[in-house]
Write a structure and sequence with these properties.
The complex is a heterodimer of chains A (about 350) and B (about 550). With about 350 residues, chain A is mainly alpha-helical. Chain A has two domains: about 1-75, no CATH class; about 90-340, MetI-like fold, CATH 1.10.3720. Chain A has helices spanning about 1-30, 35-40, 45-55, 60-75, 90-125, 130-140, 145-160, 180-190, 195-230, 235-240, 245-285, 290-300, 305-330. Chain A is globular and about 85 Å long. Chain B contains 19 helices and 20 strands. Classes of the chains: A mainly alpha (about 350), B alpha+beta (about 550).
Chain lengths: ~350, ~550
C-alpha cells in the first residue's frame, strides 16, 4: 500500500512538473513582453524590474527561469491581472468557491438521482421501465449542455418567468462573501429574512445545477445499472434470495455496496468533464466562478490570468484524480497489495 | 421477484413525489413581497466603474455609478426647463465684466458618514475650493493622486480659465476667470464638476493614504457607497441626511452585467429593476412584456469614425474625403442600430440649437471614392487598421459590427481593413499610444452647451488630455471655439459654431456616423426614473410603486 502511495506521489509530482513546463513554454511563445506576461505588471519601475528579475531569474538559463517560475507559482504568487491589476491569487480565491459549490450540488444531484434510477433499471431489466430509463439517459447524454442551458433560460426564465437566469442571489440580500459558498454565507450573515434569502439562492441554483448535473446523472445511471446487473447475478445474491431475505435488505446490504465501487471510481474520472462543463454552465448563467473569469480573460487577452487558470484547473483535476485513486485503493481489499495500480 | 417489483413501484412513486415537490417550488416565482426587496432597487449596469470620482474620467459607466449617486455639484442642469438650477449653491451672480462668478452656498449640507470617516463639520466654501483647486493647481496635495489627469477639465482648459478661487466666507465663494466664458456655468453643471470633502482630504493626508479619496468616496449625494466587489456589484445605502430629502430607496445595488442579453434576462426575471442600454435588436422583446417600460430619449451623442490625422496617408485631405465617400451610413444605421438612430452630418446632433442645418450629408459614392484614391496615387487601395472596442456604449451599440460593415464597404474601393479589438480598459490604454490608423468612438454630451461637443474631443487642449483621438490640432478651429464661448448672445455664438462645423465638414478629421437614441428599461413597479438626455443616470428621486397601485 505505501509503495503504491509513493508511486502515485511520484506520478503527481511528475505530472505537475510537465504541466508547469507546458505553461512556462506557453509564456515564452505568447506575444508581448514575457516579463509582463509572467508578472502582470505592465510598466515596472526600476526597483520592481530588479525584484522581478530576481524572482523569475530572467538573467539565468532557461532551466533557472523555469525553476523560478515554478517557485513563484507554488508559493502562491501568480502575478497581477492585466485588466484589474489585482493579485491573481486573490481573484482565484474569490471565484473558486462558486465553481466548487456548483460542482458539489451537481454531483449530489447526479448521485442521488442517478443511483436510484440505475438500481431501478437493473430491477426491471429488459422491461418498459428499464428501456425508458436507458433511452432517456441516452438522450440526455447526447444533449449538449450549452443548448440545454439556453433552452432553460428561454422557457423557464424568459417565457414563463419561473426561475432567475443569472447570478447566485438577488443582490438586494446583503450577504458578505465570507466562505464564498452562498448557502453557508447566508447562514453566517446577519440578515433578518434568512429564509427568503435561502429561497432566492435556491431558485438561482436550480437551473445551473440541473444543467450541469444532467450529463453526470446519465453516466451514473448507466454505470450503476451495469454494476447492479452484474452484482444481482452473482451467487451470493441468488443464495440470499433463496433464503427469503427481503429484497430491500438484499439491495441495500448486499448488492448496492459492492456495486458502488465501480460507480465511485467512474465518478471520480468524470470530475474533469464536470469541471469543463461547469465552466460552460457558468458562462451561460453568469455564475461568478472560475469559468466566467477565465472566459473574460481570454476575451481580454489577459495572459497572466489565462496561465494561472490553466495551472489551477489542471492542478485541481490532477489532485482530485490522484486522491480519489488513493481512496479507491484504500477501500478495495483486493487491490491493496498492488504495486502498479492495475487490476 | 414479486417483492422486488413492489419495491420498484415504491421507488417510482417516491421519485415522482420528489419531482412534484421540486415543480411546486418552481411554480412560485422568486419575486416575493418582502421588505428586503421592497426597500431596495437593483440597476443592471453595463460595466465596472474605473474609479469613484467623476473628476478623473469621461467614461459614462463611471459617471453613472458615481456622479449623481455619491456627489453633488454647485449647479445642476434641468433638462425639462432647459436651464440651470441651484444645487449646492443657493444662488449665484455674475459680475458685469463677465469674469467674476460669486456663489452663495447652502448651509445645511453634510458629507457622508462612512465606516472610516466621520465628518465633524458641514459643507462650506472650503470644500468647493478644495475640489476645484485639486484640478487646476498642480501643487495641490491631491492634484497628482490617481494619476493627476482630469480629462474633461483639461479639455476645456479650466486651469487657464480660472485665475483664482476666493473663499469670501464659509457660505460664499468667488471664481475669478481670466477670460469671459459663456459655457462656464454649464461646465460647472456637468457630471464631472463634483464637490469633494476637504476635511476627508486632510484626514487622508494625515493617515498618509491620499489615494483612498477616489476609492472610498465621501460626497454629499443621496447615496453612500457601502461596498464594491469588482466586476460583480456595487452596493449603496441611502443617505438619510441628504439635503434634498432622503431617497425613498433604502438600498441601491448596481448589478454589473456586461452582456446586454443577460441584462434583459435579469430584468425579465426580476433580478433587476432598471437596466441600462438595451440593444436595438432586443427592443421588440421589451415592448411585448407588459411588466416592463421602455424609455426612449433622443440622445445628445454622436458615434464617429476618427482618423489618426498624423499617420500617413491619413494626413492627406483627399484620402480622408475619399474614405468618407465610401461609407454607407444608411446601411450602418439599419444594421447596427436597427433604425434607432439618425445619420450624422456633423458631430453636433440636430437637437442642439447650434446645429448647422444647411450642411449637406457626405454623399455615399464608392465610384467617386475609388477615383479620388487613384488620383491620389493609390489605384489599388492600401491597408489600414480600424480599432473598435467590444463594449457597448450609448452612442454605439456594437462597434465591432460597425467595424465589420465598414470593412466590407471599404473593400469595395480596394482598401483592406484590419479590425483590432480589445477589452474596454485595455482599449483605452492602447489608444493613448496612437498606434491606430483609425478608430470607432463617440461622445455623449455632459451638458446642453454645444461647446461640449467640440472642445472635449477636437481641441488642441484635448489632444494633451488624451481625449482627442483624431490626433488633429488646428489653431483656427480652437479660435472659432474660443470666439464662440467669448460671446454671450446665442445668435452670435451660433455663427462661430456653424463655421466650426463647416470646417469639420471640409477638413474631415473624422467621419460622423450616427446619433443614437437612448434607451432604458425599467420595471413598472419603479417610479421617479427619468431618462436624462445629458450625462448619467440618477436614483435620487426613484421609488417603488406598491403592488396594490400597480
Amino acid at each position: 500500500m505505501w509503495f503504491y502511495v509513493a508511486r502515485r506521489f511520484n506520478l503527481f509530482v511528475l505530472t505537475l512538473g510537465i504541466l508547469f513546463l507546458l505553461v512556462f513554454l506557453m509564456h515564452k511563445a505568447l506575444p508581448g513582453d514575457p516579463l509582463t506576461n509572467l508578472s502582470g505588471i505592465t510598466s515596472p519601475t526600476f526597483n520592481q524590474l530588479e525584484l522581478l528579475d530576481e524572482q523569475y531569474q530572467l538573467s539565468g538559463s532557461v532551466f533557472n527561469q523555469y525553476l523560478g517560475f515554478v517557485t513563484e507559482r507554488l508559493s502562491g504568487n501568480f502575478g497581477l491581472s492585466l485588466t484589474s491589476a489585482q493579485p491573481i491569487l486573490d481573484e482565484i480565491i474569490q471565484r473558486l468557491p462558486a465553481t466548487i459549490e456548483l460542482c458539489i450540488y451537481a454531483m449530489i444531484i447526479a448521485l442521488s438521482v442517478g443511483i436510484p434510477l440505475g438500481v431501478l433499471a437493473s430491477f426491471r431489466y429488459k422491461k418498459v421501465t428499464d428501456w425508458l430509463i436507458v433511452s432517456m439517459s441516452l438522450i440526455c447524454y447526447s444533449i449538449p449542455i450549452f443548448w440545454l442551458g439556453v433552452i432553460g433560460i428561454m422557457f423557464l426564465g424568459l417565457e414563463f418567468q419561473l426561475l432567475p437566469v443569472a447570478g447566485r442571489l438577488n443582490l438586494l440580500f446583503q450577504v458578505e462573501p465570507v466562505t464564498g459558498f452562498t448557502l453557508i454565507d447566508i447562514m453566517l450573515s446577519d440578515l433578518t429574512s434568512k429564509s427568503q434569502a435561502f429561497k432566492d439562492a435556491f431558485f438561482h441554483l436550480i437551473m445551473p445545477t440541473i444543467t450541469l448535473a444532467l450529463f453526470p446523472v446519465t453516466v451514473v445511471i448507466r454505470i450503476t445499472r451495469t454494476a447492479m446487473l452484474e452484482e444481482l447475478n452473482t451467487n451470493h445474491i441468488k443464495a440470499a434470495e433463496a433464503r427469503g431475505i427481503s429484497p430491500l435488505i438484499i439491495v441495500l446490504h448486499h448488492a448496492l455496496p459492492n456495486a458502488m465501487k465501480p460507480v465511485l471510481a467512474q465518478v471520480s474520472l468524470q470530475l474533469s468533464t464536470l469541471l469543463t462543463s461547469a465552466m460552460v454552465t457558468e458562462v451561460i448563467f453568469s455564475w461568478p466562478g472560475i469559468g466566467t473569469w477565465l472566459m473574460s480573460a481570454i476575451y481580454q487577452r489577459d495572459f497572466p490570468v489565462i496561465s494561472a487558470g490553466i495551472l489551477i484547473c489542471a492542478g485541481l483535476i490532477i489532485i482530485i484524480s490522484i486522491v480519489s485513486d488513493l481512496i479507491a485503493i484504500a477501500a478495495t481489499t483486493k487491490r491493496r497489495g498492488m504495486h502498479h495500480g492495475k487490476n | 421477484m414479486k417483492k422486488l417489483s413492489k419495491l420498484s413501484a415504491k421507488l417510482v412513486l417516491k421519485t415522482a413525489l420528489f419531482s412534484a415537490v421540486l415543480f411546486q417550488l418552481g411554480c412560485s416565482p422568486s419575486t416575493n413581497d418582502n421588505t428586503q426587496r421592497e426597500e431596495g432597487l437593483v440597476y443592471c449596469s453595463e460595466g465596472d466603474p474605473s474609479v469613484f470620482n467623476p473628476q478623473l474620467t469621461t467614461i459614462g459607466t463611471t459617471i453613472d455609478a458615481t456622479s449623481n449617486q455619491l456627489y453633488n455639484r454647485l449647479v445642476e442642469y434641468n433638462p425639462r426647463l432647459g436651464k440651470l438650477e441651484p444645487a449646492l449653491a443657493k444662488s449665484w451672480t455674475i459680475a458685469n465684466d463677465g469674469r467674476t462668478y460669486t456663489f452663495s452656498l447652502r448651509d445645511d449640507v453634510v458629507f457622508h458618514q462612512t465606516k472610516f470617516f466621520k465628518p465633524s463639520r458641514k459643507f462650506n466654501a472650503n470644500d468647493v475650493a478644495f475640489s476645484f483647486n485639486r484640478i487646476i493647481n498642480p501643487t495641490h496635495p491631491f492634484h497628482d493622486v490617481s494619476g493627476g489627469n482630469y480629462p474633461f477639465f483639461n479639455s476645456i482648459d479650466l486651469a487657464n480659465l480660472i485665475d483664482k478661487i476666493e473663499v469670501v466666507n464659509p457660505q460664499t465663494i468667488t471664481f475669478h476667470l481670466n477670460t469671459r466664458d459663456s459655457s462656464f456655468l454649464a461646465n460647472l453643471a456637468t457630471d464631472f464638476a463634483v464637490i469633494l470633502s476637504q476635511e476627508y482630504g486632510d484626514y487622508l493626508l494625515s493617515v498618509n493614504q491620499p489615494q483612498l479619496i477616489d476609492i472610498k468616496p465621501v460626497g454629499t449625494g443621496p447615496f453612500i457607497l457601502e461596498s464594491h466587489y469588482k466586476d460583480n456589484y456595487i452596493r449603496y445605502k441611502s443617505n438619510v441626511h441628504y439635503w434634498g430629502g432622503a431617497p425613498q430607496i433604502k438600498h441601491l445595488v448596481y448589478d454589473i452585467t456586461p452582456k446586454s442579453t443577460n441584462r434583459i434576462a435579469k430584468i425579465m426575471t426580476g433580478d433587476c429593476d432598471v437596466s441600462a442600454l438595451p440593444q436595438s435588436s432586443e427592443l421588440d422583446v421589451i415592448r411585448r412584456n407588459i411588466d416592463l417600460e421602455l424609455q426612449i430619449q433622443t440622445g445628445l451623442n454622436v458615434a464617429y469614425w476618427a482618423f489618426n490625422n498624423e499617420s500617413p496617408p491619413f494626413d492627406r485631405l483627399v484620402i480622408r474625403q475619399a474614405l468618407a465617400h465610401a461609407i454607407n451610413k444608411r446601411a450602418i444605421v439599419k444594421a447596427v442600430y436597427y433604425g434607432s438612430a439618425t445619420m450624422a452630418k456633423t458631430v453636433l446632433p440636430p437637437l442642439s440649437w447650434a446645429y448647422h442645418r444647411q450642411l449637406p450629408l457626405y454623399e455615399y459614392n464608392p465610384r467617386k471614392a475609388r477615383k479620388m484614391l487613384a488620383d491620389a496615387g493609390f489605384p489599388n487601395g492600401f491597408e489600414m487598421t480600424l480599432w473598435a472596442a467590444p463594449a457597448q456604449r450609448i452612442y454605439n451599440p456594437n462597434a465591432v459590427k460597425m467595424a465589420e460593415l465598414i470593412q466590407g464597404q471599404l473593400a469595395e474601393i480596394g482598401v483592406k481593413v484590419k479590425v483590432i479589438s480589445y477589452g474596454w480598459g485595455v482599449f483605452i490604454n492602447k489608444l493613448n499610444e496612437y498606434q491606430y490608423d483609425s478608430v470607432l468612438l463617440g461622445w455623449t454630451a455632459d451638458n446642453a452647451d454645444p461647446d461640449n461637443f467640440f472642445r472635449p474631443i477636437l481641441s488642441c487642449a484635448a489632444l494633451m488630455s488624451g481625449n482627442n483621438r483624431v490626433n488633429w490640432c488646428k489653431p483656427q478651429f480652437d479660435q472659432l471655439l474660443n470666439a464662440a464661448s467669448g460671446q454671450t448672445k446665442q445668435s452670435q455664438r451660433m455663427e462661430f459654431y456653424r463655421k466650426a462645423q463647416q470646417m469639420l465638414y471640409d477638413e474631415v478629421p473624422l467621419v460622423p456616423i450616427a446619433h443614437a437614441l437612448r434607451f432604458q428599461v425599467r420595471d413598472r413597479s419603479v417610479g421617479g426614473m427619468s431618462l436624462n438626455p445629458y450625462g448619467g443616470i440618477s436614483f435620487a428621486k426613484s421609488y417603488r410603486i406598491s403592488k396594490g397601485n400597480k
